[in-house]
Amino acid sequence: MQEIALILSYIVIAYMLFSSLSYLGLFALAYGKVKKENKLDKRESTEDFLRNQSTYPVSILVPAYNEEVGVVSTVRSLLALEYPEKEIIVIDDGSKDSTSLRMIEEFKMKKIPFAVRTHIETAEIEAIYQSSIFPYIRLIKKANGGKADALNAGVNLSSFPYFCAIDGDSILENDGLLKCMKPIIESDGQIIVTGGSVRIANGSTISRSKVELVGLPKSPIVIMQIVEYFRAFLIGRLALSHLNILLIVSGAFGVFNKERVIQAGGYNKNTVGEDMELVVRLHRLLREEKSKQRIEYIPDPVCWTEAPESLEVLRSQRIRWQRGLLETLWNHRKMMLNPKYGSIGLFSMPYFLFIELLGAVFEFIGYFIIFGGFFFSLVDPQVAGVMFLVTVFYGSLISALAVLLEELTLHKYPKVSHLMRLYFWALTEAFWYRPLMVLWRVRGIIATFQKKAHWGDMKRKGIST
Amino acid sequence: MNLTHFWILIASLFLGQLLLLLILAWRKQQSNKRESIIDRQYKLLTDSFSSHMMDPSDERFITELNASPYRLVVLERLLNHYVSVTKAGADSPAVSRLSEEFLSERYMKLLKRGNWAMRMNTLYFIEDFRMESLVPQLKEKLAKSSRLDQETQQLIRTLASLNETMAIGALAKYPDASARLYIDVLKRLDELTKLDELDIALKDENTNQTLKHSAISYIGMAGITLFLPRIEEELQHPEMETRIQALKAILHLQYMNSPSALAPFFQSTAWPERMFAAQIAGKLQLSRYKETLGELLGDPVWWVRYSSAEALTQFSEGDIVLTHLAESHPDRYARDMANQWKTSLLGSEQ
Amino acid sequence: MEPKGIPVVIALDGQKGTELFYTLHPQMVLLDANLPDADGFGLAERLAEAGRSRHLPLAIMGEDDRIDNQIRAMQAGATDFLAKPLNMAYFLPYLANRLRSQEIVLKGTRIDELTGAGNRQAFDEVLLQMTNLAERTGKPFTLALLDLDHFKKINDDYGHSQGDEILHSFSQFVLNLKRDSDSFFRYSGEEFALILPETKPQEAAAFIDRLHKELSETEFAVSAAAPIRLTFSAGVSEYRLKQETIVNKADQALYQAKRNGRNQTMVYQSEEQELKRKLNIVIVDDDSLVRKLVAKQFSNWKAEEFDIQIKEYPDGLALVDSDWYRPEENYMILLDGVMPKMDGLEVLSHVRSQYPHDNIVISMLTSRTNESDIVLALKSGADDYIVKPFYAQEVVARVQRLTQRMFQ
φ and ψ at A94, to 5 degrees? Predict the structure, then answer.
């Protein structure tokens, strides 16, 4: 028994050291680009496009399920988006609350007959409404079919060549869409997907859809999620995008080439991680066609989203994410380590498997060994001590480093006290937050094998004050 | 594996981080202080600035600006904001006077020594403020660059905005320069220079096809009807890409002197030509092609069918024609397409 | 046309077009043969009739350029038929020609053909002559401004062509009663001017009161309805040496007559009787520099006829939540289209649904340049649409033009 535990300890320690190093390596890759572009005058570099006839029009899809609190303020922030030509399509996926009613009242919507071209099969469309104040706002009321199905219905109704999907509880910054479309336009359509970074709105002052003051929330649970975002977005995704192997376009915000998405068959209804799954499928399509087209991640365009404040909701969110990841990796297992898929198959897929998915399992074993080592002499206390230190290093110091690196490059939180609080909370990560996450992520893996798809019920308190 | 070693390693990493934290916190505090002063100055100066821009003899702004510790940054922000909201901004003598007087020295330095982002920003500002005194520096910089990277692209745009026609020649040095870049340059030249350059680009002697295509497409986008006869000539061009660009431009210009020149395109073997011909026939309501559009509704390519149906809806009795075709067209796909547009006509009416 | 320096006002349907035609008195009308709410040819006939006295160029535009349609256009009284889509290369020189020849023709005439009174041009000339004469000989004269009461209601109730009839009859009524030495002019719309040489203001007022009395006994026929009676208000002012503001003073007196309940005459008293009308210029924009620039530009506008007050609001909500409205004042609202808290269009709909139209003019000042956005704003009740980036001077010029109609 001790023998096995010892071997396991070595494996886990080696794993943690290895993945810490890969984090650092990935950040080093991203650092140059972030640093280089950070000081660039964003206004100047996008100004040209604002008055340009050669921008592509974009359809904005807002899937909503029981979002009566947030949906109106989301649409309002979309109205203020600076973009030459856009339409907004809200898809009410059979909500049980008054999501549709709120939209109809607020924007004086009227029922219209409309021939929807069915590119992708979806659950039954009940009615389509159009706003009489802003004719480019439309609402689809459909039977419940899940988020993927709702997005597919939106794709069917959309009339523009690009679409962007944004969650009903998120708020996009004024020039976010312009910044996301910029690489697409500049590459003359060679970039087919761009994902923008997501930030947590809790703690910031948002009044009627405008972010007025960036701040930190009180709740440690949310602060920890912010630290987590730093770690994931700054270190992982940016570097992966640099290597054109980005797998996740966060569910909260991304712009897609519609034709390509339709070609790939739209969003997959059978997974909870439909956003990631679609991106992987698009990658696969590109590689199989040997296309030169790319998928890119932009560190800058910011979309604000409400992070869960209760452990209960956070738990179901994490379980869902983990399931989505596992399902996607499983569906596309053919790509894993397959040289035909280039760096996606050889690098990106293994990265997500070992670091993002199996990481939880390794860490779980790690915590188990520390606990066992100190209290039940499962392993030599010396080994347990090393394991403990490595865990602290992996869990806390890397996160704390992520906070520092964010400050070094993007510095989005304005006050010195924000930096201090973020840093010190990040240090505590390995002692309470991380074990919780690890536990839930392991639960997520298990849950995948007991398939049951549903939208995670998240109690919204509304993003706007 | 020794526990002590790990302790030392982790502790030193931690201490290193703490040090970095302190440095960053100090830096943040400094930059916050600076930002808040600049912000206050900016707000304070908005009033006298707007007076000065209206009436340059009002010197209050200059005095206040000179008293400000961050005058260059504040002025840069004010001017930048001013040119983005007013039309007169770019050609305003007050803007170029202020920028030449206060900023040209700083920009000269930044162009040479700044980091990438600073150099890019400087190029944007030189363009926005039309700082002609910096043209020699820009040209010198252009001569040194050997790759068409983002910076060189912006350098060329900036030169074009200062009405330097050499910007086109500079682009031509790079065979991979895209049509979008040529268009960026063309639209920045001033009216008269622009017409001359378009004229040169359309001439047969010009062997730079990308330039020619961009000229044609720009004429369409900007609606310069003066060139309409020249564009119509291009419909006879032996190269398909040129013909397609000419068709697109005509679609934008919404006019044709001799609509009969469109006839051969409906029989073209290339579907984009058929598609654009159909779109033009619709947009210009060329009723002589109505029958042809009906036939194209059965085209093997979806886009051509789609455009023909859309074109038919443009005619006043389009709905009747489509209803008729939805029943009687020999091709099944054509009937589907006619049906779809028939219903969309319904839906679009509010 | 706008870049060529020709101001354009757009109406999306026949009703709005007719309203703008009668309020703004445009120099030229371009009319689509197919209107959502009216037959273009029918409307053309009415407008051409109404505009004949000022030689109005009126072009009908149509997709269907068959000869029958062109004939119909000519029969309706249009001066031109333009085939759609317009050939822009032809259109601009065409427009310039028409406007130029209209200007030349108008310079030659001195009679307002609709009413038979002298026209504005003649008024300006006579006024100049009279002041020159007064300066040299010291002979005073008096100016009276006469404005028909509730004329807008007549237009609304019986239609604009009946309104024109009434203007004609009223003009004839005054022309019959005035002394030979007095000159009578149509000043603008339903406002008339009477110049009475060698007359004291009290004498003038006595004469005008006689007009009031006679008028109250006169019936005016309107087709398909019982005859109606008219009243007017009048402001009187005497010319004194070295004064150039006689028209403004008469106008102020007229305004006071209106405020006192109409159907009466007021004589302009003295300097201290300052009862100017008030124009509030309301700038709603979240960009402080834009507000400042526009406000500064307006502060240079010294209007004789009214007081100008400039108010700034950083967003739509701030305006809507504030207590900004006084029914007796006039408002010109410049609205930013894209504002985060409450979109410009919503502010527009709000103001249009909650407050009267007469004394509020709204113009969008926005970076939304899509055709559909413009149409939407006009449909929702905007009077004008100014695109950002703008010329500050242009904004003021357009606003001056738009606000004219509130002070006629």
Answer: 60, 40
Answer yes or no: do B50 and C388 touch at CB < 8 A. Answer: no
pLDDT band at B205 (very low <50, low <70, confident <90, very high): confident
Chain A, nearest residue to C339 by Cα:
A80
Quick one: CA torsion of B317, B319, B322, B328, rounded to 10 degrees? -90
Partners of B350 on chain A (C-beta within 8 Å) are 110, 112, 130, 132, 135
Residue spans of the domains in chain B: they are 64-164, 179-257, 268-350
For residues A438 and B55, the answer to whether their CB atoms sit within 8 Å is no
Subunit contact A133:C341, Cβ cutoff 8 A:
no
Q: Bigger pLDDT: B287 or A170? A: B287
ipTM associated with this complex = 0.81
Task: Please give the Cα distance from A413 to A20 (Å, whole number).
Answer: 25
Show the CA angle centred on residue B126, arms to residues B123 and B128, nearest 5°: 110
How many angstroms separate the CA atoms of B61 and B75, rounded? 10
Look up residue A322 and give its amino acid: Q
First-to-last C-alpha distance (Å) of chain B: 77
pLDDT surpassing 90 at residue A143:
yes
Torsion, Cα A95 A101 A106 A109, to 10 degrees, reads 100
A 10 A CB-CB count for A36 gives 14
> Which chains reach chain C with 3 or more Cβ–Cβ distances below 8 angstroms?
A, B
Lowest-confidence region among A32-36, A237-241, B28-32, B228-232: A237-241
> Looking at CA atoms only, how far is residue B285 from chain C in angstroms?
8
CATH architecture of B179-257: Alpha Horseshoe (1.25)
Q: Given an 8 Å threshold on Cβ–Cβ distance, is C87 in contact with B81?
A: no
Whether the CB-CB separation of C40 and C31 falls below 8 Å is answered with yes
| pTM exceeds 0.95 | no
Q: Is C279 helix (H, G, I), strand (E, B) or coil?
A: strand
Contacts of A73 (CB under 8 A, 6+ apart): A171, A208, A209, A462, A463, A464
Contacts of C341 in chain A (CB under 8 A): 207-210
B82: which residues sit within 8 A by CB, 6+ positions away?
Answer: B49, B53, B89, B95, C289, C293
Is the model more confident about C26 or about B162? B162
User: Which residue type sits at A372?
Assistant: G
pLDDT interval class at C130 (50, 70, 90): confident
Q: Is the CB of A136 inside 8 Å of chain B's CB atoms? A: no
Q: Do B25 and A419 touch (CB under 8 A)?
A: yes
Rounded mean pLDDT of chain C?
83
Mutation test of the interface with chain A: which of C287, C341, C388, choosing the one with the most A Cβ atoms within 10 A? C341
Which residue(s) pair with A62 in the sheet?
A: A90
Q: Which of A38, A43, A404 faces B17 most closely, judged by CB atoms?
A: A404
Q: pLDDT for B12-38, tens place per residue?
A: 999 999 999 999 999 999 999 999 999
Give chains near A: 3+ CB pairs under 8 A: B, C
Structure tokens at A423: 């840093």
> Distance (Å, rounded) from C-alpha A112 to C-alpha A125?
13
Query: CA-CA distance, C270 to A52, in Å (whole number)?
Result: 58
Average pLDDT, chain B: 89
pLDDT tens-digit readout, A190-233: 899 888 777 888 888 876 556 778 899 999 999 999 998 888 76
User: Hey, what domains does chain C have and what are their CATH numbers?
Assistant: 2-110 (3.40.50.2300), 120-271 (3.30.70.270), 276-404 (3.40.50.2300)
Q: How far apart are CA C152 and CA C139, in angstroms?
A: 38
Is some CB atom of chain A closer than 8 A to the CB atom of B10?
A: yes
Note whether A36 contacts B24, CB cutoff 8 Å.
Answer: no
Kind and range of the H or E run holding A213 = strand A210-213
B197, two tokens: 């350059």
Over residues A284-290, the mean pLDDT reads 88
User: Is the Cβ pair A82, C367 closer than 8 Å?
Assistant: yes
